[in-house]
Amino acid sequence: RSGTFGGVSAAELSVPEKARKEYEKAYRRLGKKDLAGAVAHLEKSVRLAPRFVPAWNVLGTLAYQSGEFARAESRFREALKHDPEYYPALVNLGGALLSQNRIPESLETNLAAARKRPDDALAHAQLGLSYYFLKRPEEAARHLERAIELDPAHFSFPQLPLADIYLQGKDTVSAARVLRQFLSLHPDSAQAPAVRKQLEVLGILNRD
Fold it and tell me: Is 7 left (phi over 0), alpha (psi -120 to 50) or beta?
């Protein structure tokens, strides 16, 4: 997710010191892998300062990481309500909508994110996925390729849907190229065995 901590918004100018201290305590709890403790401090922070936009964004991020996508969405929207220009919450909202299979809504949000930050790999990866699920392969491929150009090792694994698009178009050479790139960058990922098998089936695992 984007912008877990840091970033200054206009809505923060009135944030009291007590709320900031709770935010800092949450950061320390996360450093100790204490998710519940971090959430408790963040919730106290936004009770003290309802316009504390980064705190809402982190609450959304933690909910997302826990698989609570609807709760994540509501917290990202709360951040954007107080500061519509706060980019981390915008791009994270796009991811939350994707994870809830609300693809048309995700397309609109991810388009807005990519326009606002054209050099952000996350925005392009999510936008590519939105187009992919809407069965618009040319647009999907363009944005997934851009995500890889910006960050080949991106955690969203843009190579995987891109390879599928290439295979649908019978372009096995390009599919093999991005699958081999994926393996070189993520050899121990959960997806790696299936990718190796896919390359073996194609008969191109060791082809230069």
Answer: left
Digits of tens for pLDDT over the chain (208 positions)? 554 444 554 555 678 899 999 999 999 999 999 999 999 999 999 999 999 999 999 999 999 999 999 999 999 999 999 999 999 999 999 999 999 999 999 999 999 999 999 999 999 999 999 999 999 999 999 999 999 999 999 999 999 999 999 999 999 999 999 999 999 999 999 999 999 999 998 875 445 4
What's the token pair of residue 44? 């106290």
pTM score, whole prediction? 0.88
Q: Which two tokens stand for residue 170?
A: 């019978």
Residue with tokens 């695992």: 205
Q: Which two tokens stand for residue 111?
A: 């388009």
Other C-beta atoms closer than 10 Å to the C-beta of 11 total 21
